[in-house]
């Protein structure tokens, strides 16, 4: 095998002698034996590149065939530069919450009105004997009562009208007569603007006499007895309702 390698080597040397220009031109692989084509010659047994007498590690490192022949001497590739890290996007500032409009100050609620319960009453006396209609004086009194006392009320709960008679006559007759007197007064009150749904009426006959008439004796002459019992021939009107409570007067400041 050694002889074969020597023969090969000798042949290459001879070939190189006849082609000096090729050897001169192939300086890129200086330090290694090359053939006429410029290729590095390798041993047929070891497969290693054949070095020349001017081989040095520096020349081998500069040779084009260094990776093939002496890969340990080949310059290591420069590490690729890492791409610059992209800057993190700046966090968007949180939008400021919109200022809520201040609620408008609600006006203080007005104090609820306070009421006082009231009971009003009027006696319309002196109705003519055996008659049902109110007298002119009765109507005048009733008009003033309704205008000044009843209508100014904040509300009316009920109007109670009761008819009465004197003791002359039978109980049955007097009962019917008293009812007619109450009904006549009720119609008059309605004509003055009072709601008839609020009105209750009845007749009591002679059962509720005026106390003063106890002095009217039956032994009196009839005309005199009728006149004495005149207060019993009447209509009583009662009103139940409520009026506004007057505002409390401010207390006077103490004098210093």
How would you characterize the overall build of this protein?
The chain has 256 residues and is of the alpha+beta class. The protein contains 7 helices and 4 strands. The chain has a 4-stranded mixed beta sheet. It is rod-shaped, with a radius of gyration of 70 Å. 18% of the residues are buried. The model is unreliable at 1-25 (pLDDT under 50).
Shape verdict: rod-shaped
Percent of residues in helices: 25-40%
Low-pLDDT windows of residues = 1-25
Tell me the structural class.
Answer: alpha+beta
Total beta strands: 4
Over the alpha carbons, how many angstroms does the gyration radius reach? Answer: 70 Å
Q: What profile does the largest beta sheet have? A: 4 strands, mixed
Distance between the termini: 144 Å
How much of the sequence lies in strands comes to 5-15%
List the strand order in the largest sheet. 1-4-2-3
The average pLDDT value, as a whole number, equals 82
Number of helices: 7
* Order of helix and strand elements from N to C terminus: HHHHEHEHEHE
Q: How do the helices and strands line up, and which of them pair or pack?
A:
Layout: H1 2-18, H2 20-25, H3 57-62, H4 66-69, E1 115-124, H5 136-150, E2 155-163, H6 171-191, E3 199-203, H7 222-228, E4 235-244
Parallel strand pairs: 2-3
Antiparallel strand pairs: 1-4, 2-4
Give a short overview.
The protein has helices spanning 2-18, 20-25, 57-62, 66-69, 136-150, 171-191, 222-228; strands at 115-124, 155-163, 199-203, 235-244.
